[in-house]
Amino acid sequence: MSCIQEKIIGEIQDSIEAKQKVLDNSEILKTLELMADQITETLKKGGKILLCGNGGSASDALHFAGEIVGRFQKERKAYNAIALNADVATMTAIANDYGYDQVFSRQVEGLMTDKDVLIGISTSGNSKNIIKAVEKAHEIGGKAYLFSGKDGGKLKDICDLCIIVPSDVTTHIQEVHECLYHILCGLIENAMIEVYRN
């Protein structure tokens, strides 16, 4: 086996171990179930999901919103989700006029109601623009959830529900996040289909 192949195997094993740590953590599993239940209730009551992230987490926010608005695995009606980092014109206008720290909070102020939920995605838990977005969401009376890693940073102390992947490696945190988004989307989709069937 070549050194490169050993490196590849090592990376895959590390990724599997990060997922195994989540699988062995009953608190994370309970929180994911609760998050699915609460987001389903939000959608049933006509609320929406707002998402935000930076860099790779911005891509995750887009991916998550796409699965909710489009569909995940089953044919069904569209649900309401918006990735706040999708609108480049709005983001750059806010960054130019107010600073990058407010690119999400300003949108939360304009788009969020007390029926809605904000999902912040930050592998460190310390992204200033997401902290400000969560603070604004709470001012409005909405809920704020977190997907993070490491120790959850400052965001873990101000969010209503937190999924904190027990890893210090950003890439593995992101890989676990994607797995959890898919599970969450499936749980929400199945629950919402039952709502419209009954």
TrEMBL record:
Binds 1 zinc ion per subunit. Zn(2+) binds at H63, E67, Q174, H182. CDD domains: SIS_GmhA. Pathway: Carbohydrate biosynthesis; D-glycero-D-manno-heptose 7-phosphate biosynthesis; D-glycero-alpha-D-manno-heptose 7-phosphate and D-glycero-beta-D-manno-heptose 7-phosphate from sedoheptulose 7-phosphate: step 1/1. InterPro entries: GmhA/DiaA, Phosphoheptose_Isoase, SIS_dom, SIS_dom_sf, SIS_GmhA/DiaA_subfam. GO terms for cellular component: cytoplasm. GO terms for molecular function: carbohydrate derivative binding; D-sedoheptulose 7-phosphate isomerase activity; zinc ion binding. The keyword Zinc applies. Belongs to the SIS family. GmhA subfamily. Catalyzes the isomerization of sedoheptulose 7-phosphate in D-glycero-D-manno-heptose 7-phosphate. The reaction produces a racemic mixture of D-glycero-alpha-D-manno-heptose 7-phosphate and D-glycero-beta-D-manno-heptose 7-phosphate. This is Phosphoheptose isomerase. The lineage of its organism: Bacteria, Bacillati, Bacillota, Clostridia, Lachnospirales.
